[in-house]
């Protein structure tokens, strides 16, 4: 279905671990296109799509949107891009996401960049973000943490069993984390 040859890196980590922040840094230095699954879903709500209300309700509850919806958005973004190198941020979030993405697109990731951070630090960051996200309140944050541990960490473990996970200590400062990221991306330097 997706004939395009694409290099894909999955960027995973808990809510507030710094995925979006570091993806922006990587884009600036290494010529990747950043596809945040959460951003694509939020844009879909704004566009007034027929799925908008369902997506909004799931995000508010910290639940994972059905794989077909997210995969369609990612696949369209990949096909419409001129680039062939992508950071897919915040996806796959569960086994269903992972298996369906690989089946539908035929793409397997080069590797998985995994940002590890304690919940108390992630909670602090999310509560002080102030960007008006409907899920940045303490009730939803707790639900997001629970879903992350129960559904998303198993995906990281799956890729780890294939030797594909590059783990980063994401509790350090933004600059220090990027220093560690750079070591991993040095082979993509222009
Ligand atoms: N910050 C970043 N790095 C820092 C550092 N090293 N030190 C101090 N502060 C740091 O960072 C969060 C905040 O922390 C920012 O203010 C930043 O300045 C600061 P950010 O880079 O935004 O972290 P990120 O990991 O991207 O956090 P985000 O909240 O985006 O992660 P989530 O995984 O929770 O959110 P996402 O947008 O991916 O998903 C939201 C929801 O969409 C999900 O809960 C789910 O309901 C739905 N969704 C799906 O259903 N399916 C999908 O495939 C994707 C999403
Ligand atoms: Mg993000």
TrEMBL record:
Binding site for a ribonucleoside 5'-phosphate: 42, 63-65, 90-93, 133, 144
Domain of life: Eukaryota
Annotated transmembrane regions: none
Binding residues for ATP: 16-21, 129, 172
Binding site for CMP: 97
Subcellular location per the Swiss-Prot or TrEMBL entry: Cytoplasm; Nucleus
Family recorded in the similarity comment: Belongs to the adenylate kinase family. UMP-CMP kinase subfamily.
Domain remark in the UniProt entry: Consists of three domains, a large central CORE domain and two small peripheral domains, NMPbind and LID, which undergo movements during catalysis. The LID domain closes over the site of phosphoryl transfer upon ATP binding. Assembling and dissambling the active center during each catalytic cycle provides an effective means to prevent ATP hydrolysis.
Quaternary structure note: Monomer.
The protein's role, per its UniProt record: Catalyzes the phosphorylation of pyrimidine nucleoside monophosphates at the expense of ATP. Plays an important role in de novo pyrimidine nucleotide biosynthesis. Has preference for UMP and CMP as phosphate acceptors.
The name this protein goes by in its record: UMP-CMP kinase
Biological classification of the source: Eukaryota, Viridiplantae, Streptophyta, Embryophyta, Tracheophyta
Portion of the full-length sequence here: 416 to 605 of 609
